[in-house]
Each structure stands twice: as structure tokens, then as C-alpha cells.
């Protein structure tokens, strides 16, 4: 996951489009100082590439003391930036927000990955397109840090048939054959509401059956039938998949746990500690 | 709160940079249909301007059946878009995400506004800069729909002295005088950790004292002392202010409840119901 400078500049300009009235008004802009980022609780960190680059973009010198996906202790310094107060203040809140939101998503996703892989090491946790609009780079960094995967980057990289498509189709059963012809290099995924529907689309040649709001025991039953008839078809589970039921779904035989749950919750607190060896300004 | 087309186009292109492989592959792109947005539970809606414009940008015709801040019933249709399947599918998930995240923030903020204003109709709930990075337009639409205010758009519109500034100052007590000189058209706000510190900065001429993590009873005590000595100084409370304690803080005499709490939580579910009078394609 790469953060472009254009994206990161956008975040900085969002927060400080012109002058930083407080820092400049105090006359402290040129005073040198240090800011250290340290999580308040143990956990996984994410967003470090972005946070480091944000400081660099305004001219601060950065020491990166951890990398995305590292499990760190409470109070462990993960990033240190040195520079003028004007540089540090133009960046620190944005960097903190990126670290806190990315790490919050990463910790919740990592809980799901751990739970699922304890039952089946090949099971994957895939995060959806249902993130806060405009936050893909941060969300994808979090997914990677957690050991998860991206379900779909968007509509142009993958094929997934929903009811919202079938409503337009005179013969929904013809859908898979059409898609296999139009997109022979893509796997064809179909979301279904029942075992019967899933078996019908698997028989029609779907590569992935996405089970919408199946109970874990229904997934297990589907797995048994599907493994006999269509052993290569991938089973996704979607709808209400959380850290609480991830183990159950993995045990039931789901290959991919599709979830938006890690997006909803608190940021992971990261304290930004300032120090200044020679406070000289604002006398 | 205005959403620029450039911003909304960015959201659409994020989700569909090139082709919609599924809709186009199915051959349903030109088939006409309807999508209706309806919340699953009663509550306040937000993000409607953006959602409507998103559909228009791809050529769909839109009926707006509610406006931001309206309290709606479960199942009440708030937006109807008519057009070709290609247009509706290019937009509906992004529109749904905007509506759900904006309305989620709006409902939590509205809970705080109601709680605070029941105690003091002049109290304001002000949302902070600690939102998911890159989401200002959606967040601000939510704040307005809830009857709240924006604490600071960023560093260029307001003056607020934190400890992170004072660490650079040889004489922090000189801060207010300097800022009053450099920014005579702005109110000067200072965040403090104690009543004593608050009184010192109020005496120095601060217009706003932001009480960081004061208990409600400490705010009440501060209010008493401050009203005697500096009756025109505004009291902000910040740090841990939620819907649960908003009434207490308003009752204690806080003028402004500064909070990030509405940002953390679940989106407000909005169902997107598709229909197609003449399913003709994908035979």
C-alpha cells in the first residue's frame, strides 16, 4: 500500500490551508523541538508510512521506530519527528489521526484474522468497500497491517453479482455464463441467500459463492454439499461477520470472511508527546 | 455545507476507476430501473445533498424526498433515483456509504445536542478536527444536520493554545498578549488543566478557556468563579465529552461541548432498494 504525496498533501492542506494562526502568532515557529508518537495501550500499529511522510513533507526529520503490523507496548515510541515548531504543528494532528484511525481498524481486523486462522490457517479476512468514503489508502494500510486482504478495491477489479443486478435480468440463471464469457480472466462471484441458490450458481460455473447472512451451521451444511459436488468453489461469508463469530465461520468451512466490522469503532489512542530543549520564543 | 463536484467525482472514481465489470458483463447497463434509499430505523438523516448529486453526476434523475436534519421513520424513502442500471450501479454504494456514515455521525451528535440544550438552550455541541482523515465535507454535513457546530475547520481559522505550544514558550503567560496583538480579529482560546490555570489565562485576556478533562463539578466551580471575575469568557469543555455526560456538562455551565465522540460508532443503516419494471437484459 503506497500513499502518494498528492494524497498526503491533501490531508495537510485540509487541516492547514493557509497559516497556522496559533503557532505563528505565538512567534514560536522557528523554535526547534521534538514530537514522539506512542500508543497508550498495547496493540498493532498501522499508518506509519503515511505518518512519517507527512512530517517529511513539511521538512521535519523523522525516525521510524516501528513498522505497520508491529505489535507494540503501551508507551513504546513508534515515530520521532524533529524540526521547527511550525513544521511539527502543521502535521502532528493529521499524523496522529492517520495513526489512530488506521491502527483502530487494524486492531479490530487483526482480532478477526487471529480468530479465523486459529480454526483454519488458510481462511482469509477480507475487508469491504463499506469504509468511510474517501479513506481507501488509510483503510487498505490497516488491512495489510492486520494480515487481512482487500475484498474488492472497487467495481473495476472484480465481478460480484448481487440481487441489485439480478433485478435487471430476465433470466438471472444466465448470469454466470454471460460473465464467464465477458470476463474470462476474472473469478465470477455470486451472492446468494440460501444453500439451494448457492448450489444452482455453483452448478452454473460460479467460482465464488458469497453466502449472505448464513448462520454458521448453514455454512457448514453448504460446505459439506459443495465439497462433494464442486470442491473448487470458494465460499465467502458476508453480513454480520465480526470478531465474535469469526472463529465459528472459519470452523464452519468459510474460505473468506467478508466484513466491514473493523471499520466501526474507536481509533487506537496514540499520544503525541512534545518536547523542546531550548524554549526561546514567546517571552 | 457545499459538496464540490470535484470531491464527489473523486469518491465515484475511487470506487469505479474504469468499467463496472459486473453490470457491463451482464449486459444490463442500458436497462432502466429505480433505486430508493430508506433508513432501516427511525432517526435523523444527513448527506442527502451529496447523495443526490452523486446520482446526477452519472446521469440519473433524482427525487429528493427529505433534507438533511429531517427526523424520518424506518422505511421512509428519502431519495429515489431513476436511470439506467449502469448509472445506478456506478453510484449507489457510494451514495449509501455517504448517507450511512453522515447519518451515523449526525444521530450521535444530535443526541448530544438534545441532551445539552435541554439543560441550557444556548449551549453548543462543537465537533473537533479528530475525524477520519479526508472526510471533512461529510462530517461537516453531519454536524449541521445534527444542529451542532464545527469547533475548528483547521489551523487557519481559529486560535487555540495547547500544551503542545506552551512547551516552546519561555514565558507561556505572555502567550495571550502576543496572540491578541497578532490576531486582533480572532477570539483567543487556551486549553487548561486546572481552575487556577484557567483563571490565570482569563485574567491575561483569553476569550475562551477550554477545560481539558475537567469533571462536571469542577466545571461548575470554575463557572462560579469565572462568572464573578470574567463574565464574558466562554467555557469550553473537552476530553471525554459524550452523549452520556453532555447534560451534566451543560448543567455545570459549559458554553461549548467540544467532542469527537460522534465520529466513533456504526453507520446509520440505509437500505437501497432496486426495482426494474421491465427486466429485459441478461436473458
From TrEMBL, chains A, B:
Residues 105-272 form the Quinolinate phosphoribosyl transferase C-terminal domain. Keywords: Glycosyltransferase, Transferase. One of its GO terms (cellular component) is cytoplasm. SUPFAM superfamilies: Nicotinate/Quinolinate PRTase C-terminal domain-like, Nicotinate/Quinolinate PRTase N-terminal domain-like. GO terms for molecular function: nicotinate-nucleotide diphosphorylase (carboxylating) activity. The keyword Translocase does not apply. One of its GO terms (biological process) is quinolinate catabolic process. CDD domains: modD_like (cd01573). InterPro entries: Aldolase_TIM, ModD, NadC/ModD, Nicotinate_pribotase-like_C, Quinolinate_PRibosylTase_N_sf, Quinolinate_PRibosylTrfase_C, Quinolinate_PRibosylTrfase_N. Residues 20-103 form the Quinolinate phosphoribosyl transferase N-terminal domain. Belongs to the NadC/ModD family. This is Putative pyrophosphorylase ModD. It comes from Sutterella megalosphaeroides. The gene is modD.
Amino acid at each position: 500500500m503506497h500513499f502518494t504525496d498528492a494524497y498526503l498533501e491533501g490531508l495537510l492542506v485540509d487541516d492547514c490551508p493557509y497559516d497556522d494562526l496559533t503557532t505563528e502568532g505565538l512567534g514560536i515557529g522557528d523554535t526547534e523541538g521534538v514530537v514522539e508518537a506512542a500508543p497508550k495501550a498495547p496493540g498493532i500499529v498501522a499508518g506509519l508510512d503515511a505518518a512519517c511522510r507527512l512530517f517529511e513533507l513539511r521538512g521535519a526529520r523523522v525516525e521510524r521506530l516501528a513498522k505497520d503490523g508491529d505489535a507494540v507496548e503501551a508507551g513504546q515510541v513508534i515515530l520521532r519527528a524533529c524540526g521547527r515548531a511550525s513544521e511539527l504543528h502543521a502535521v502532528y494532528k493529521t499524523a496522529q489521526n492517520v495513526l489512530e484511525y488506521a491502527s483502530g481498524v487494524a486492531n479490530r481486523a487483526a482480532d478477526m484474522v487471529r480468530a479465523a486462522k486459529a480454526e483454519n490457517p488458510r481462511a482469509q479476512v477480507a475487508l469491504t468497500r463499506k469504509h468511510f468514503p474517501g479513506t481507501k489508502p488509510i483503510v487498505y494500510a490497516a488491512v495489510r497491517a492486520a494480515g487481512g486482504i482487500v475484498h474488492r478495491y472497487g467495481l473495476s477489479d472484480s465481478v460480484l453479482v448481487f440481487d441489485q443486478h439480478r433485478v435487471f435480468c430476465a433470466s438471472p440463471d444466465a448470469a454466470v455464463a454471460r460473465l464467464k464469457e465477458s470476463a474470462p480472466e476474472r473469478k465470477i462471484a455470486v451472492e446468494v441467500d440460501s444453500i439451494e441458490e448457492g448450489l444452482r450458481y455453483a452448478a452454473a460455473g460460479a467460482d465464488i459463492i458469497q453466502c449472505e447472512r448464513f448462520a454458521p451451521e448453514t455454512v457448514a451444511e453448504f460446505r459439506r454439499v459443495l465439497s462433494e459436488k464442486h470442491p473448487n468453489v470458494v465460499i465467502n461469508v458476508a453480513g454480520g461477520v465480526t470478531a465474535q463469530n469469526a472463529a465459528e465461520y472459519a470452523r464452519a468451512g468459510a474460505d473468506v470472511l467478508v466484513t466491514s466490522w473493523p471499520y466501526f469503532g474507536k481509533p487506537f489512542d496514540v499520544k503525541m508527546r512534545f518536547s523542546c530543549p531550548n524554549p526561546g520564543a514567546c517571552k
